Amino acid sequence: MTATIRTITRRASGRESTRTTEVATNQLSIGRATDCDIHLPDLRIGLRHARLTISAGAFLIEAEGDNEFKVGGRSIRRIEQRLGAPLEAHFGPYVLKFSEAAGRLVVDVERVQQIATAAQSIHSDQVFSLRHTWLSKRSAAWGFGLLVAALFLVFPIATFATNEDAVPAAARMQAGQMWISGELSGPHELLARDCGACHEAAFVSVRDETCVACHRETNRHADNARMIRAHGAMSMTEKGMRTVADTFNKPAGRCAECHMEHNGDDGVATASPSCTGCHNAMTARLPDATVGDVSDFGRDHPEFRPTVVRQANLRAPKLTRQWTLGDLEKGRLARETAAGAGARAAVVCDGFAIGQPNFRGVPHTGAMTGDGLAGDNSGLVFPHDVHLQERGCVAAVARRLNADEGYGDKLECKNCHTENEDGVGFRPVSMERNCSACHSLVFENVGGFERELRHGRTKDVIATLLDFYQARVVGAALGGGGEDRRRPGEAAQRSAGFRATAFAQAPQRAASRVRAIFSEGGACYGCHIVTPPARADSLDFQVQPVTLRDTFLPKALFAHRPHETAERQCEDCHEARSSKSSADVLVPNVASCQACHGGERAAANVQSGCVMCHGFHSKDEGAARMTPTGARAPK
């Protein structure tokens, strides 16, 4: 139920003014405190003097603590009255008149001033007034005003206008310190005693040229003209302020509009309205915008659009952000349906013997993306579900390697994904550091010496296998030595025809070893997408480069360490245990984040503004560098 509060003020001339306030609550506070619904500023009134409760057809006034109020000249602590029946209640020098209008409670608040009290006040003012002495308020105000102007205006100007040789640098610095409104932000603290580093000219605002002189590598957020368009039409007040700023050479979009120094670490405008002022309905003002509208994270934030590899390429992978997490989930289901139930069950361990391939993958075509199969085409074949099994061969190997590698009874996410020192992201996953403990690249053991392939170099792998196995076949044909020094016995009796046959077969035998390692069941095939040669007699195998993303959300910043608690596990947010393909993007959706994070003014959830996850200056490669406002970007 609502109530109308009318505060009545009577001027000395007898004229009456009324201020009306609408209150949409059924319980109002009465007292001296500034946050009371009915504010009665007088020391005779308690901070929380009484409470007014409105119910259907009636209202109740109850005093709080030891307070009282008067009705009909009698001090009481509680009264209940039917709505519509007139009532006057006196609280010290105030009278509250209760009435009814259109079914709403109306409270008229008026301060009652007795004539005798007013006369006494006038007499007291005349007796104790300093108006006719040199200590009058007017004289003191003018005197102190002129003193402040002399110390903090005339003195600094005169100091800076005087020849530098006549005024020591220390005195000039002290004069400038008088005008500093506050502390510099953390990154600029080293400039606290060098005002001229930013303020190049006296009485001239800091210009963009000064900022860009140091921040040459900083990227723009967007084109300045587009940002002004995205902000929308200005109000009359904003237009007036813009006109004044332009007059004093402060163009729109200058650095100092957001970076307002001398306000401590709060010198940058970080409140969400600074962002949502453009982004709340930007697609209407900029139809070609590539980002969605957002006004509040808790209730109006678009679904995440991760950046994934659409076409793997070692030097310049082609990326895309055209898919949302919903699209990626549909692609995941489509891949599982196409593969058929139980297809991944063919993945087995082979004992992890030295010189044998350590992982056997099911046949794959290399088509990780396509119509209805949206995903991350990283070039890697990796099933999370196989590696995170609680039982089976992978868990058995983890237990076997526990002493050397620190694994537990089974593999955990942390065994491969280790945090950076800052706790924000993770170190890149690599074969040498994360995979080689289980997936050995040893292909032969000769006399106790393990021969190992060089990971990541396809041509080197082929050359190593050819050299080794051809030499092995030829060495066996020669009996372990050259033509002049053959071993006695059986090797010496070998015919020249036998050796010629062995020499001829050596390349084919070595080539068969190369084909085996790049074919189904081979060490390379199990984890990589292999393109066989076009001709049957060729060994030109191609391995698709692996391009692992260090983050799928490069437009945002997410720190994992604050989210790591004893109650929360990795799989609470990342569905790795059910992922059968490395094409799956295991990023939680926005609803998962909104379960804990609300908007900047959320009451129940973690208050989360835009800058908690997003920066302002673009980090995209190729983004335009910062240039002074109004200047053209360098080519």
Give an account of the 3D structure:
With 635 residues, the chain is of the alpha+beta class. Among the domains are: 3-121, Tumour Suppressor Smad4; 304-588, no CATH class. It has helices at 115-128, 137-161, 169-177, 208-214, 224-231, 236-247, 272-279, 282-285, 325-339, 384-387, 393-400, 402-405, 431-435, 458-477, 496-517, 523-527, 590-594; strands spanning 3-10, 16-23, 27-31, 38-39, 50-55, 58-63, 69-71, 74-76, 78-82, 87-91, 94-101, 104-111, 308-311, 318-320, 442-446, 449-452, 530-531, 542-543, 597-598, 606-607. Strands 2-1-12-11-10 form a 5-stranded mixed sheet, with no helix packed on it. Strands 4-3-5-6-9 form a 5-stranded mixed sheet, with no helix packed on it. It has a two-stranded antiparallel ribbon with strand order 7-8. β10 (87-91) and β11 form a beta hairpin. α2 (137-161) packs across α3 and α14 (458-477) packs antiparallel against α15 (496-517). The longest helix has 25 residues, at 137-161.
Q: Characteristics of this structure?
A:
elongated; single chain; 28% helix; 635 residues; Tumour Suppressor Smad4; 17 helices; five-stranded mixed beta sheet; 20 strands
Rounded mean pLDDT score: 80
Based on CA atoms alone, the radius of gyration comes out at 40 Å
The percentage of residues in β strands lies in 5-15%
> What's the β-strand tally?
20
Structural class: alpha+beta
Helix content: 25-40%
Q: Separation of termini?
A: 65 Å
List low-confidence stretches: 115-119, 341-347, 350-363, 366-370
The main sheet orders its strands as: 2-1-12-11-10
Number of helices: 17
The major beta sheet can be summarized as: 5 strands, mixed
Mass-distribution shape: elongated
